Amino acid sequence: MKFRINHETPLFHYGVTIPLIVPVVALLLYLFFELNVNDFGPTMVLAGITALSCVIELLSIILFFGEKIWGGKIIVENDRLDIRLFLRRKKIRFDKIDDVKYTHYEITENHGSERRRHSRNIFVRYHADDVTIRVRAKLIIYLSSGRKFILNDDASGYAKKRKLWITEPDLDPDEDVRLYQAYQCYLSASRQYWLNQQ
């Protein structure tokens, strides 16, 4: 079975934000030590740091949007998981997996003050939330080598159905999350694989 997921690599997020901060810190250090613009060495170092940060920023933006477009794919086969991400591919045999854990995590985004400032609606101006919380699903695959492989996916359907789950206990809040569907398929295929090994 094939499952498409919206995997996000944290390294690409850091690659977009950190290069914005590094040139500012370098400039502040340049001013703190009261270096002269006519000094060729420190000025070239500052220019080099800025140029390198711009290149890393551009590359990270390209990788970030490339991953958004490409996404990820999990293929559950009879005896292995075939994971295809933007820059990585990995085939993991079931006998190399010690454990698999499915969980959720939240990402907090702060943008409500911007919405307040530009809104014409008085209710939104005075009562808009400053924080938006996005829920994402995470699948941690613990390998027998001691390493772990982490996948994540958008779980907006889970966030909506979690509130309904209180009144309808038979409802599975994760049923629309593709990573959860891949996890359930893996559990079924793994169970069958180990039954066939006996």
Describe the structure.
- 49% of the residues lie in helices and 27% in strands.
- Helix 1 (10-32) packs antiparallel against helix 2.
- It has helices spanning 10-32, 40-70, 112-118, 122-127, 156-165, 178-197; strands at 2-5, 72-76, 80-84, 89-93, 97-110, 131-143, 148-154.
- The radius of gyration is 23 Å and the shape is elongated.
- It is built from 6 helices and 7 strands.
- Residues 114-118 have low confidence and may be disordered.
- By secondary structure, it is α+β, with helices and mostly antiparallel strands.
- It has a 4-stranded antiparallel beta sheet, with helices on one face. It has a 3-stranded antiparallel beta sheet with strand order 5-6-7, with helices on one face.
- It has a single domain (1-106, 134-198), classed as PH-domain like, CATH 2.30.29.30.
- Strand 3 and strand 4 form a beta hairpin.
Q: What's the end-to-end separation, in Å?
A: 24 Å
Largest sheet: 4 strands, antiparallel
The chain-level mean pLDDT equals 86
**Percent strand:** 25-35%
Share of helix, binned: 40-55%
Q: How is the largest sheet built, in terms of strand order?
A: 1-2-3-4
What's the number of extended β-strand segments?
7
Q: For the record, what CATH class applies?
A: Mainly Beta
Shape designation? elongated
Radius of gyration: 23 Å
User: Which stretches are poorly predicted, pLDDT < 50 over at least 5 residues?
Assistant: 114-118
Structural class: alpha+beta
